[in-house]
Amino acid sequence: MIEINHVSKSFHGKHNAIDKLNLMIPDGKIVGFLGPNGAGKSTTIKMMTGILPIDEGTIKLNGIDIVKQPLEAKKIFGLVPDQPDMFLRLKGIEYLNFIADIFNVPTDLRKERIEYFTKQFSIYEALEDYIQTYSHGMRQKIIVTGVLIHDPAIWILDEPLTGLDPKSAYILKEMMRDHADKGNTVFFSSHGLEVVEQLCDVVAIINKGKLIFYGNMDELRSQYQSDQSLENVFLELTSDE
C-alpha cells in the first residue's frame, strides 16, 4: 500500500507543482496514474521514491515513511523510471548483479531469476554486452529485470511499456496482473490510455498538481454520465489545458 497524505511540492518558490495531494494506492490492485504533460506525475513518483524531497505532507510505503525511514522504505519497492538510460558503462550481467548485491539476493536465486526474466524478455544472449550498445527497448528490459530480481512488494512503473516489443509488453502486463493478484501493489503511470483502460483496476487522474478523479472505470463513467472511452473522458477532464 502507498499512502500519500496532504503532499505539496513547489520549485523555486513558484506555484505548487503538487498541491495538497491525497492518494491511497491499495494492495491487490493495478492503479493507473494519468495526467497531461506537466500535471505532476513524475514529480509525485520522484517524491514517492525518495528522489525528490517533500515540502509538505507524508508518503508511506507499506506503513514506512519514505522521509523518516528511507533505507527501509527503499527495500520494499522497485522503480522503473521513464528514462532507462542508466549505468550505460556496465554490461547487462554486471548491472543485474549490482542490483542483486544491493538487495542481498542469494547467488542461486539471483542466477535463477536473471536467467528466467532475461529469457522471457529475449535479452539473455546480450547480458555480456555493454548497456550503452543496447537499443531503447533492450535498456527498458534490463531495467525491468533489475526491478524483478529482488521481488519487491511494491512496483512503481513510470511508462514501463515504452519501447517494448509486443511480446515483451504482453509478458510485462501479465506479470503486473499476477503481482497484484498475489496481494501486492502496482502503481503504473502511462500515456497509453487504452492500455490503462484494459489493464488497471483503478485510475487516478491528476491535473495541475491536484487529484481530479480516483476510482474505477464504472465510477468514472457514472460520475461524468458518459459511456465514452477513457481517452475521451480524460480529454474532457483536462480540456482546460
From TrEMBL:
InterPro entries: AAA+_ATPase (IPR003593), ABC_transporter-like_ATP-bd (IPR003439), ABC_Transporter_VariousFunc (IPR051782), P-loop_NTPase (IPR027417). Residues 2-233 form the ABC transporter domain. It holds the Pfam family ABC_tran. Keywords: ATP-binding, Nucleotide-binding, Transport. GO terms for molecular function: ATP binding. PANTHER family: ABC TRANSPORTER ATP-BINDING PROTEIN ALBC-RELATED. This is ABC transporter ATP-binding protein. It comes from Oceanobacillus longus. The lineage of its organism: Bacteria, Bacillati, Bacillota, Bacilli, Bacillales.
